[in-house]
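Hello support,

Our group uses your service weekly, and this is the first time we've seen a run hang past the timeout. The protein is Glutamine--fructose-6-phosphate aminotransferase [isomerizing]. I'm not sure whether the cause is the sequence or the server load. Input pasted verbatim:
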Amino acid sequence: DAVERGEYRHYMLKEIFEQPRAVADTLEGRIASDRILPNIFGVKSDELLRRVRHVQIVACGTSYHAGMVARYWLEGLAGIPCSIEVASEYRYRQAVVPADSLFLAISQSGETADTLAALREGRQHGYLGSFAICNVPESSLVRESDLVLMTRAGPEIGVASTKAFTTQLAALALLVLELARMNGLAEERYLRLVNDLSTLPRRIADALELAPQIAELAERFVHKHHALFLGRGVNFPVALEGALKLKEISYIHAEGYPAGELKHGPLALVDEDMPVIAVAPNNQLLEKLKSNLEEVRARGGELFVIADDEVRIDSDGVRGALIKVNSGGNLIAPAVFTVPLQLLAYHVAVLRGTDVDQPRNLAKSVTVE
Ligand code: G6P
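Update from on-call engineer: The timeout came from a worker crash unrelated to the input. Re-ran successfully.
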């Protein structure tokens, strides 16, 4: 075990640092000259993907958060309506399936009982076909799906998923960009976005350099009982993922919220004991986010902002910290912003002395209901 962990104290930390490699492997042989190569989704995939007019995403846990990001991309770039649901809900519901809908299952293990049950249930409901994004080639999910795109994260041992998430985002971006191209995304924009995607391993490597800074910040969370994570748009799922990581391994109660909902509830909880962590990308929602942050500041909340390095935020007089990272543009920003949040959860858990790789009550793969 110690041999496999190498220089790292925990598998989770090793896996966080493996992300540049894992994402590069996931993109390897799938992009050339700023284009997605043909047939990477399997032979005959073209014919099926061209007919897609709706996508139903189903997943659990961290994989569900990856799917939530993909929904923003699918509708924003490919103009394809997309629904997403956790598998345990989808499987027991009389879902109405729109015409020409693709069933998209996302799972690291490919053995999650609810996700498999949803796939099997979906088969009865007239989907065009099923598409799996998965990390385990010999899994049930891969065997039972029509089309497959493997993430190449390698074995993930830590129960809290890290490299599986960022490789899922890379794989989902490939699928979305292909669907977007088929549905008329302007050539120039397509080329630029594929290029942005190819820079993801480098951007993640840059974000990992924040580790010492984040380790220091983690000390300010050790005695907290609650934390609130905020994001907007495509970075809202990043807030959910940041909160999930923190609660899974440090046992601090954490919630992820779309920043615009702050005033509809969570603001009532904000005081000097409730740290607020916000993701601030450089996009059209920045100004809105800033006013949400102002609301937190006015209530004496401690504010930790992870911002794109081009974002200008006045941090004078703010309790908390401003952490800057080159997020590499709107497409890959969710994957890049996730990295400091993973590091934060990790370091807080280490300081609290929890079992980071094997958190209490949780399993790596939930193969029974
Ligand atoms: C468990 C794991 C999570 C994972 C989820 C879905 O809850 O602890 O890390 O995200 O299952 O697993 P899957 O293998 O389907 O992605």
